[in-house]
Amino acid sequence: MDDAQVISEYSLEQAIEDGVLVEVFSYNIKDFVEKYTNGKPVVATAHLFNQVSETDLTDLWNKYVDWRLNVMPTLPEEDRMFVSEINGNKVWVDETDTAITMMYPEDY
């Protein structure tokens, strides 16, 4: 796949503009969050964002940061996927080069 030609790419900016992804944190804590993300935005799928509270997303973020700092470095690379639950539903947090995305597995 390294030699495959990319026909099109759905950018983060376009996904936010289209409403598929939503920036999670309001500007009043964005600077605090960005110190842990190296400037990457934290986004959620619209599906998740519209079903849970901001408190739920903040709690998920706090669990992710703890996992990222304390657990992830001890895991083999193939096991480095953060999984948690909100309201009894499985939630993933996926970090890429451009963003940190919170989502339900079915949103992937």
Structural commentary:
- This protein is α+β, with helices and mostly antiparallel strands.
- 36% of the residues lie in helices and 21% in strands.
- The protein is built from four helices and five strands; from the N terminus they run αβαβααβββ.
- It has helices spanning 12-18, 27-37, 46-49, 54-70, and strands at 21-23, 42-45, 82-86, 89-95, 100-103.
- A five-stranded mixed beta sheet has the order 1-2-5-4-3.
- Strand 4 and strand 5 form a beta hairpin.
- The chain is globular and about 40 Å long.
- The mean pLDDT is 89.
List key phrases describing it.
108 residues; 5-stranded mixed β-sheet; 5 strands; alpha+beta; globular
